[in-house]
Amino acid sequence: MADSNGKGSGRDSEANRLSGRVKRYTRVGTNVGVVAAKLAGNRLLGGERNRGSEAADLRAALGGLKGPLMKVAQLMATIPDALPPEYAAELSQLQAHAPAMGWPFVRRRMAAELGADWMQRFGSFEREAAAAASLGQVHRATAPDGTALACKLQYPEMQSAVEADLGQLRLIFAIHRRMDPAIDTSQIAEEIGARLREELDYDREARHMRLYSKILAPIETINVPDVYDDLSTKRLLSMSWLDGQPLLDFSDHSLEARNLLGEHMFQAWWMPFSRFGVIHGDPHLGNYAATVDGDNEPTGINLLDYGCIRLFPVRFVGGVIDLYHGLQKDNREQIVHAYETWGFRNLSNDLIDTLNIWAGFIYGPLLEDRVRTVADGVRPGQYGRKQAFLVHKALKEKGPVTVPREFVFMDRAAIGLGSVFLHLQAELNYYQLFNQMIDRFDLEELAARQGAALDAEGIPRPEEIGQ
Known about the structure:
Layout: H1 10-45, H2 51-62, H3 68-78, H4 85-91, H5 103-114, E1 124-125, E2 131-132, E3 136-142, E4 148-154, H6 158-179, E5 183-184, H7 186-198, H8 202-215, E6 222-223, E7 236-240, H9 255-276, E8 278-280, E9 288-292, E10 298-303, E11 309-311, H10 314-329, H11 332-342, H12 349-367, H13 385-398, E12 401-402, H14 405-424, H15 430-437, H16 443-457
Parallel strand pairs: 5-12, 6-10
Antiparallel strand pairs: 1-3, 2-3, 3-4, 4-7, 8-11, 9-10
Helix pairs in contact: 1-2, 1-6, 2-4, 3-4, 3-6, 6-7, 7-14, 8-16, 9-14, 10-11, 10-12, 10-16, 12-13
């Protein structure tokens, strides 16, 4: 039976689609297992290694699935040295977008979340999805008063899908450890798993959105969507629709315009971290948009998608600031203290020197009191790769080292933020911007500020949830 849209019917269509997903998961799991067995066989039999071929095999095995695993694979590709560069290059080509579910699915899912009369609670609701991603899709709608809304609706069975994908992730990391034990990736896998599970909880995302709205309220040019609680559940998030343009649309605008966007991005990331111990952990360019004036010149930014928010214990934030000052003064004792605060253990002098290569890269723009690009002469796709290569080479000789889980998203987000600056070709005094953020930094004040902000939104403190 056809529905009113002229498309194949609801329940059968959705059942077939879900059945198809199950089959794809089975096929992908089998394919990844074949790749693992092939690598193990080559290792045992002394076969010749070809990482480029191995990486291509793995991408082919994963490419049959459009779901959470694609998000994980792309995420891993942005964490320098989480995987060999050949693997990162292949996995970065995977597309995380899924085909949108049709109107019969949307109608039933909305009824399940808001009740049979859900349509009466909106002024309007567009049948076709405005965007579809790995965990859900977004529909444009309006509130009864005409306010434009974005309704983010989660796909069915996502919890099972995420757990299945995390099983594949553990297998991928196991492959990596057998091939290259210089970096222990177990903590990375745990951190990715924890954050991905959190992304399924839209109630949690709503609380984080409200948290960011309060944190960034003093900066009028940085916009955060408003949550519509009466139209939201754990699997449906309704928020105000923010109009904006992709940041890359301004790459050929004036330096003044590009610098304005760069400054707003710096503030949107470093202010919440330095004053509240929280970061927006997904640096994908699609999660930011620029607001414009009548002449199509940028005036500010919209900060979108709060599924991947990372809260940090106060001690970790203190370690980040301590490392900055230690590098600034070349104070080795302070540098070592910072690494230990982050969670690195059993550090020899050689390992400290190795970590300093990476720290010098991350903090480099913040240490020089001059106007500069974030990485002079480096292309966006190569940002951080040279340093990652040097670190990995040194760890092979001096390691292994276990990367603390708290470091994972801090590092990833910093790389993503730097890539935004590179794409914009912004020329800023990062030293002055950073020192404005950490002026009069005090751990006790941070602890009190963070606690009050989290308590107000009903968000557990990092130490309460083992972060």
